[in-house]
Queue: 2 jobs
Job 1
Amino acid sequence: MNTEFSLDSLQVNETIDAHGMLLQMGYQPDAIVKDGKLLRVFCPIHKDQIRRSLILDTEEKYFNCQYTQCPAHTGGPLVALYAICMDMTLTEAANRLRAGVQTQVEPILLEKAQALIEQQNYGEAMNYLLQAREEFPENTITRCKIASLHLERGDRDAGFREYMAAAEEFGVKGDLDKTLSIYNMLMMMAPTNERVRRQMAYLYGRLGRPRDAADLLKLLIDQYIQESNPNQVVRICEELVELLPQDAQIRAMLTEIYAGVGQNVRAAKECETAAHLYMEEGNRSAALDILDWLVENIPGQDHLVELRYKLHTEQPGPTPETTQATAESVEPPDEGGWGDFAADLEAELDATAGPTYTPQELTPDDARITMCRQQLEGMSALERYKLKTFLADTVSEVKANYRNGLISPTELDQIRSFYRAFSIAKEQIDAERKA
Ligand SMILES: [Zn+2]
């Protein structure tokens, strides 16, 4: 950013009314947010339309952009902001601001251009429009006229570019009706254009139409998935969450996307939020689905295993007071199914070992069974539930490791016997309780 300020431009700077300057730059009054002595607007330099990151200090006559990647982040006197946005030198900006008001030259240029367009003298008309644009860049309508003239002359790319720029300018300055009508037109010209979709989505967000915004962002996500661009997928999905923070489905989608790019901690956090939101909606099976999915795909998430257990054991529709106490006190519903559960895992290991495998038989007094019994008897229902999850996860790992050759047939047999021991130990405990 140019930091060479003349004494003259700094004197002018002291007299600038920041609010008036923004209006002169084309900002709509309701696009300017007053915050004490500060004014906040969407940054016209990095074309932000999500956060009002550009701050103008009405007393210090100073501005800066809070977005660290923005060239305006370092800030400067207001006259410099005006010069940058209006594409002028500091001296030109100071003269313009000192004059305070627009001259009557612009309407004359535009009228001439319009007359030439009617005579289909497009080349000449364009010259007038470009001159008006250069001298009065704050008037975005001129930019639209240039865009439409490009289209009229068959230069689709140039027309598209100018319309995009115009829509961004209107968006930044808060003229949302005009922004929307331009984007609608651009969507028709280029329905799969990524930038149009994104901008349109942000605009819907600002217009209080988050569903419409989400639909567009989801299309973009599909597009990025097809292009195998996981970073973009993550970014758009995070924007979706920002737009619709209470939407369980979007959280669930983000859970899987984070897991897909190896961000397991974030995946677990989103999963938890998704499960809670689903429960608030009364959609218990969706809450369990996403928890099951996560626990299966990302091992070691104890708190989610607990949450899943809690949801499994809770009766649907209890009052919040009773749900608090259930985790430790209620027997898990699948308690009686432990034998089948362990037998299923054994069967999985047998299948992994291959058709010629003959499992070791265990006698009822085998030391491994005794050890498993001691462990099981000392456990709370919740701990047993966690153990089951652990055993199931381990089987998946063992299967993979056996196929990779990391586990030998003998080791596999020992692991399988361990599962058999758990199964027998549980059967013994159940039989004694019944007796
Ligand atoms: Zn900025």
Job 2
Amino acid sequence: MMASITSELLFFLPFILLALLTFYTTTVAKCHGAHRWRPTKKKRPNLPPGAPGWPLVGETFGYLRPHPATSVGRFMEQHVARYGKIYRSSLFGERTVVSADAGLNRYILQNEGRLFECSYPRSIGGILGKWSMLVLVGDAHREMRAISLNFLSSVRLRAVLLPEVERHTLLVLRSWPPADGAFSAQHEAKKFTFNLMAKNIMSMDPGEEETERLRLEYITFMKGVVSAPLNFPGTAYWKALKSRASILGVIERKMEDRLEKMSKENSSVEEDDLLGWALKQSNLSKEQILDLLLSLLFAGHETSSMALALAIFFLEGCPKAVQELREEHLEIARRQRLRGASKLSWEDYKEMVFTQCVINETLRLGNVVRFLHRKVIRDVHYNGYDIPRGWKILPVLAAVHLDSSLYEDPNQFNPWRWKVSGSAGVLLQSNAPSSFMPYGGGPRLCAGSELAKLEMAIFLHHLVLNFRWELAEPDRAFVYPFVDFPKGLPIRVQRIAGEHSVLTESTAT
Ligand code: HEM
Ligand SMILES: *[C@@H]1O[C@H](CO)[C@@H](O)[C@H](O)[C@H]1NC(C)=O
Ligand SMILES: *[C@@H]1O[C@H](CO)[C@@H](O)[C@H](O)[C@H]1NC(C)=O
Ligand SMILES: *[C@@H]1O[C@H](CO)[C@@H](O)[C@H](O)[C@H]1NC(C)=O
């Protein structure tokens, strides 16, 4: 216990020092200035500029107006042009500061728990559960996070998750193309990530009736997460709450089976999944475990499938990148064959260098998570602005990723900008990488970022080696405020015959 507190302190110490320093330079120095110049007048808070909009709804509808995912949208453009990168508004019924500023975004995430606190709308808590990691703060959050990180540790990533990711990739790709030509790439990506999570969270096998039922239930559930929280019969939110109940029912049954099994058999025969971990290694209550599993299923399924669909979308419009990807993966497959190996190894994964550029560029331009919800818990002074306690604050990650002062041609898909020695000037600022935060940051940094990268890289490996693809009809990514392809990204594929194909019957396991 003590050891963990100490190591935690050591971990946070640099952030604390940084915070103190920033606090001194931005606050103390400014206050002195203010006192010198206006000694008699009571200091009025210097709020960021902005307009409150309509009563009650404020500017919420403008803020959430759908727009192509590769742009920040008219609302953001107009507000930044009028007020600057930090402005105030009234959103989701609360007084809010919106930040499109890379420095402030980083400052917010690194001061989690000290100056700011995670604060999602109550509707999210209603659906994901009060013990969901997105909702928890403080010690309760830390405990849940530790369990998730254990489950997603680098040891498990190499030994367990890498082979699992490859197995689930092949399961999906071997069923391509389905009978009638065009099919939804987003749907297939969801199948892939859902099956992977269901297997690793509670050992549910893909294709089984129970798994399929849960997956379909999950789709209803997701519609409710992004809907308005109107809880009366017929609304998306109401249906989602019902879905939540039946999903929890499935998880609960799994849990009881497991408990029964654990009491009967030796512990060595237990399945190595998150459910097993949570039951053995923690003293979480049943209710807590249910919410933990449900929210991990949510966090690990929607985001990475969207990222994969976006990669398929962007690459389709950039044949040069597909070509370079294919060369990289052909080389990896060639060396793998020389070794006589039939599965990808961690070393193979580490060779996927250009693939990582493609992944970063996909997340920069696609912005799976556009903004985060935070609350100000202490009065904050930043760059001359006063941000009062009690306000909400939204770090808009997308606005920074599409900022033309950080990235040249920010609306262009250009994976080469991530090559360290690549063509000069595509990252305009040497600090651009540090403002790149697709997984958030600070003490709530995405627990699954390494898994997400692994999923995308392995999937792309087999995709580019075995298929060419094209969009069956134009589809654009929209934001509601979650990114989505309205038509599910219909594509048509063509198999590439070749000796490295692991999809053909002869080499199929
Ligand atoms: C490309 C895919 C992904 C993206 C862009 C992404 C993005 C994010 C972001 C931005 C956050 C921070 C939320 C906040 O601070 O309010 C987050 C949190 C989280 N993500 Fe991911 N994520 C991805 C994939 C995954 C996967 C595959 C998992 C795995 C199981 C996962 C598990 C989590 C968990 C557990 C949290 C909560 C962490 C905490 O509160 O301490 N994510 N993710
Ligand atoms: C548990 O394992 C021990 C040896 O490891 C064995 O002797 C015993 O029969 C096992 N019990 C059950 C119920 O499998
Ligand atoms: C279990 O809970 C008790 C009190 O609720 C606490 O003192 C103990 O440290 C917890 N153990 C673990 C392993 O979290
Ligand atoms: C991709 O972005 C991450 C930050 O999330 C960075 O650490 C990494 O170096 C980037 N990868 C490449 C290939 O530039």
